[in-house]
Amino acid sequence: MQLVIMRIAGLLLLLGLLFNSSQAVEHYQSHRQTAQGLILTTDQGEVSIAFYNAHSVAVWYQRSAVLQQDSLLIGTAPQPVALQLALDEQQLTLQSDALQLVINKSPLSIAFYRDGELLTRDQAGLIQADGQLGFDFSLAEQEKLAGAGQRVLGMDRRGHKLPLYNKAHYGYSTESSQMYFSLAGILSDKNYLLLFDNGATGELDLGHSQADQLRFRAQGGRSSYLLVAADTTPELIQQYLAVSGKPPLPARWTLGNYASRFGYRTEAEARAVVQKFRDLKLPLDAIVIDLYWFGPDIQGHMGNLDWDREAFPNPEQMLADFAADGVKTILVTEPFILTTSKRWDEAVAASAIAPGPDGQPKTFDFYFGNTGLVDVFNPKAADWFWQRYHQLLTQGVGGIWGDLGEPEVHPADTYHYLPGIGLQPADAVHNAYGHRWAELVHQGYRRDFPAQRPFIMMRAGSLGSQRFGMVPWTGDVDRSWGGLKPQVELALQMGLFGFGWIHSDLGGFAGGEVFDPELYIRWLQYGVFQPVYRPHAQEHIAPEPVFHSQEVINTLRPWLELRYRLLPYNYTLAYQHSQSGIPLMRPLFFLDEQNPALRDEANSYLWGDAFLVAPVTEPGVTSWPVNLPQGIWFDFFSGERLEGGQVLQRPVTIDTIPVLVKAGSFIPMTDSLQRTADYQGKALTLHYYADQSVATSQYSLFEDDGVTPDSVAKGQYELLHFAATTEGNRLTLNFSREGGEYQGKPASRDLTLVLHNQRGKARKIYLDGRYIPIVAQPQRFARGENIAWYDKANKQLHIKLPLKAATKQLQLHY
Questions:
Q1: pTM of the model
Q2: DSSP β-ladder status, 611-613 and 659-662
Q3: What pLDDT does 761 receive?
């Protein structure tokens, strides 16, 4: 114990000497060139400048004799980059094909350029003063800044001073400056990302104190940042995640419907809710079991990390029965081990509990009881924690939910052991806690359950956490219209930084004394076009649709069925996210980055390339505004053709919200399903929204078995490519198949092509040069193959064709 106290005292003395001195100006002395960039020797230490690709450069200030934490942000090895170096007496210029750095020698500063345009300037290098480290960067006039994580502030965060401290905000609605994810980075409308590789408690000042300056400050941690620059925002995200690590492709069932509440108290109750979905023929793929699986009460049992056998007498059989019915079971876990829990003595013996200043396990009181906190940074503690997960996954648990991982309560005099560094105070690692927790679970999955795609739902993390497959949500939102309103903003902001699986507790979580059916319906309608479909709430008002009136169920049934019919489209979005990082929910400005109104749009969004969705977030309305980007759009429900470049008031009823489709879009769909396990991919309906304004368009549908990890790297997948060309009175569509074999791959695909917005009945149709007849009766069409039917009322042409060969070409003459 004495040794521990001495180490902590020495660390605090070093930090005091380091941070409480006045800021000294740094001066260049010499440099040496490396394969990835430069290492500068200065009068205060070294500065590493390393390109990870042509668009991305990491700058790391390393003071002499100061140990620093490993990178949170960077998850891949650097790629070979061609660099040019020029120097004179005043400066060094280092550049790749995409990015130029001008390094002023004395005093040291670094300016970043793309195509000759100044993006920003590291004005003074590493700043160490007043017990903090940090950086100051220049901001241009009128520059817009997204980022800083979960906040309800509007899409442009410039002008705010924001705490960097992951913190629960229970029952938030239309305003919040501090929430579960405090991401230490920004995305500029000048198309650069500036990301601070630091998980400590801190502050991000986005032109609040000084209008032309961005300031980052942290109470310890790593003195490094990453700058990424590109021509477009999607390319910017792709280049960033090429460095930080792309999110893995989750299992297909992740896109299904979840039964979830706070919480199911017994095995009988859990079984009954699953059965109720089946009885009402509402699809279901997962059940989320909250606190009561390990104890009968909210308080006193957290940390048991094992089944309460009185309430759940045979969990292994329950898990097996659910799995046989296509339902995955997700269990909540927390990093707090109560001193009253069954695991306390075991955790202490395993050195799993983070210590206090005296070297003993740190204990403190919070809502759930007297507790300690698992030191996820300590390999011994992480191994102990993982063994609890290993046992649960061996029993048949289908996914892990990590809650309260900010951590929700994290006393400043808690210490964490970092290998190679030693003990660090809570404030030096606070925002990295959820990140490390997700990492240890992900590593355990990959090592011990290599045949499973991990499911890791967590409430907090940091930049870089996306590479562990983290599925975040927006926390304990108020069950109100005010709680619904900011959900698009929260999702878009997180998606720009790689967290494409961000979602909300559908229907709202906290409060609400009387059930509001209109609010509930509107939230669940929005959820159809959200990455995870998971109604969840406090139990005094049921979050599951099966426990509401027949009218509510009838209203929501077609929406839930639509969610499942869109499975091939949505799963392709998941594939795209895993390959490029482009989020599933995308801001409208992706279509026009020079339009400031689209930059600020926080009420509607793109769902993939095809859809524009505008959730209704006010009660009693009969119309809803849609900020429609340039181009031609179609109402998904009515088929009405609309001109973009304007704000339109779209009519709505309780059965509809504005859902529009961009002209030239392909949308693959399947038949209605009760579970994603029923999906085969053999019979597909491909909708194409034709328009004379779109000369060419293309789309690739991704298919695999939905469960095999690394299916793309293994070649166990197929891409179905669709392309359309309009020339005068002829529409040509090409179909091709690419990829390898996988379990359950159909030898042929039974494709029904639905062409929307037709210019009347086509005169002739040819498939690979062979004439296809157009029949008048839909019944005959349903029985045939290589046949067409024109639906005059809806201006839709339906064509049935099998995709057996590698390529097919369809030509329509009007």
A1: 0.96
A2: antiparallel
A3: 84
